[in-house]
Task: structure prediction
Amino acid sequence: MARTASDPNDLIRRLEAALKQARPRDTADARLMADIVGMTWRNLLMTHIEPDPKFPIERRGSEGVPWEFRVVRVLRHMLKRAREKIAANDEHARKVRRLTSFTVPEAEGGAVSMADLSRLADLTIKAQGMKERQKLYVPADTVRDFLSRYNARIRDAILGTPARLDPTGALDPSARAFIDDEMRNLAVTAEQAVQEFLREWSAGLFEGGTG
Result:
């Protein structure tokens, strides 16, 4: 039975096994290609093909025209991407440890979710409190850098919500427009709050604050 691919290590094992069986000239349509990589066609399409402009496609499917893939090319490409995700996971974990001094489980697939961001913020606050009690202070540049990147991730997560809610464009146009507007307003509000804090906090530094 086809499965969704969430663990890049598991995906790599399946792809490597499939690559050993594939022949250089093998081709596959959408259903067969999905079976070969061990996932549903929808998952393959939405999480691997559509987001990746370099995904190797021999012929893109359309009304009455089947998809066509070179099996070996697809397997090698997906192996490369899966290994890149593992490297991204490792880098994500290292950044979290540097920022918080806590060990946080890696995010599967390398993506940073809203839950990840919330947890990162909570741990950072706790770590900062411990350091302050120990008379150890986080440098001002580190705080600025963290908040800027945190804000960028929040903004990207918010603005990406409509596309995740309606990946195929099936929503009524007026409903989609309303969601887009609300998400943009929320992103602007969040960014303004962070920028206001940074301005006030930076001003405090010049008046003798920590840093």
Observations:
- Residues 1 and 38 are 8 Å apart (CA to CA).
